[in-house]
Amino acid sequence: MLKTFKTCRAVAAGAALAAGLTAIPVATGVAAAAPLNGDDRNGTYLALGDSVAFGYQPPNATPAPDYSHPRNFVSYANYVARDLGERVTNASCPGETTTSMLDVTAISNGCENTLGAAGGYRTAYPLHVQYSGSQMAYAVRYLTHHSEDTSLVTIDIGANDGFVCEELGQCSTLAGLQAALQQISAHLHDILGQIRGTGYRGPLVLLNYYSTAPYKDPTQASAVALTVLLNQALDAATTGYNVIIADGFGAFAAAASGTVTDDPCAAGLLIKVSSTPLECNIHPSQLGHQVLAASIENALAKAGDQEAGKGTPGGQRHRGE
After folding, report:
1. 37 in helix, strand or coil?
2. Which of 60, 74, 168, 278 to pair with 301, CA 20 to 30 A apart?
3. What is the mean pLDDT of residues 183-202?
């Protein structure tokens, strides 16, 4: 996902690697989406992460989003909650990094702050859930108090770390990229450890990132490869924490397979910002969020089958303790 809708470029090992990355802008507009949720007959569900989990829409979406009403923003978490009969508490924040998720004073990509400027989305507009301190601290408080009735935790995080790394010029070399990926992995390992440290033993799902570039466009191969590298770093962090990995990358690839070059934009999986020429923002459309929700639900179902001795690993990976 480390790509803006305009440009992304990367080169092979041993050479410079860079990508055109942007921070999340904020603007006012009009409401565009209706609330969507499930009841709590099957327990509560805690959603954590960044703008993807939040359901963020860019200012140039049609209709223009109204950032003052968070219920207008519907993400995969809402579809999962509805389908599983769980009430979602969505603590995500647009622009959150693995660093700022752990430390509210650390650099984010537009959540608590933006590079070179104080304040961010969270200081300007309400989140789905209002809390003080870091998102991690809130998650720990929530799970400590709701350990018995929480039936699901999901998380997507890490892409904004790449955006910040690029803005700082730290990912322009292979060594810099590798260091950034190692830091993302280490921070996620800490995050998952804190979640399990609350005593929560239910399903913990990591949703990996989709490619915003066409999967089979040779000119965009390096952009797709960069997303693969990020997902590998995230995957490495899950060892020891009984994490179910939902394959958002593969889900978008499958859903886009009917288009030329398997393009998520042409398939309607990303928010369209221009028709002529066709241009998309990096964030999922409602169709895209439904595809991501299905990947989570399928991963949960496969994990359940495996525990019952019925399933096979297939495309979903379940990292055991």
Report:
1. coil
2. 74
3. 97
